Amino acid sequence: MPKLGNPTNTIEVLRKYHFVFQKKYGQNFLIDSNILNNIVDTADITKDDFVIEIGPGIGSMTQYLAEAAKEVYAVEIDRALIPILQDTLAEYDNVTIINEDILKVDLKKLAEEKNGGKPVKIVANLPYYITTPIIMGIFESRVPVESITIMVQKEVAERMQVGPGTKDYGALSLAVQFYARPFIAMIVPPTCFMPQPKVGSAVIKLIRHEEKPVQVKDDAFMFSLIRASFNQRRKTLVNGLQNASGLQLEKKDIVSALEEMNLSATVRGETLTLEQFAQLSNILYKG
Known about the structure:
Layout: H1 7-16, E1 29-30, H2 33-43, E2 50-54, H3 60-68, E3 71-76, H4 82-88, E4 95-99, H5 107-115, E5 120-125, H6 131-140, E6 145-153, H7 154-161, H8 171-179, E7 180-188, E8 193-194, E9 201-208, H9 219-231, H10 237-242, H11 251-260, H12 274-284
C-alpha cells in the first residue's frame, strides 16, 4: 500500500472503495505529507509511546504514527472506513483499529489494560462540532495522558490558549488551562484537506500539567461556576451565578465572596483568571 497523505493516493483509495464523505462525521482528510510529518514531530512520538488516534479516516496519519510509535490504537466511528483502514494499514502489525464512537470508549481502561496504566499520547484530526466534548471527556475521566496533539478549527485552538478580557476567553479556555499547557504548533490552510473545509485549522498541543496550577476543593463545582458565569456574558458574575439553577447560590453569599477577594459586585466572569475562579470556588463550596 503506497503512503497516503497526498491527493493522488488519497483519491485512488477513495475511488477503489467508492467512499462517500459523511457530513455528519465532519470528515476532512489531510493530503499534505509535510503537515502529517509535522504533527508526528509536534506530538513527539517515539518508539516507547502508546498512541491513541481519534478519527483516523483512511489512515493517512495512522501510517506516520505507526512508523514512529510502539503501538497505535485508532478509533474510527464510520463503519464504511473500517475495510479501507484494514487495507491501508495492513503492513503495520502495531496498529489496532476500533470501530466505535470515541465518546463511548473507556480510554482510561484501554490505557490501563494495553499500556500498564502508563501515560498515553493522543493524536487526532477532530471534527469541529465535537472538539470540546472529546477534550473535556479525556481530562474529566482521568485518562492517564501525557499530551494531546489535535487538529481543530483555528478559532477553537485560539480559544484554548487565550487569557481573561479577550472575546474568545471562556469556559473552554479555563478548562484546558486547568488541566494542561496549550500551545499552537501550526496553522493549516483549507487546501491541505480533502474535501476543503470552509475555515482554517490549527494544530494545538496540550501538555498535561504534572501538578495543576490551582488547588480546588471540588473540580466539578468550580467548573459549574465557570460555565454559569459565561452562559450569559453580558450579565454580571453575581447575576450569572445567582440565576444558575444547578448552583443554588444566594446573592449575599456571592457578593460576600467577591468582597473577600477584593472584587466589585459588578465584575463580569470574563475578567476573572483561573486563580480567581479557584479562589471563588473554594470560598463558596459547601461540601
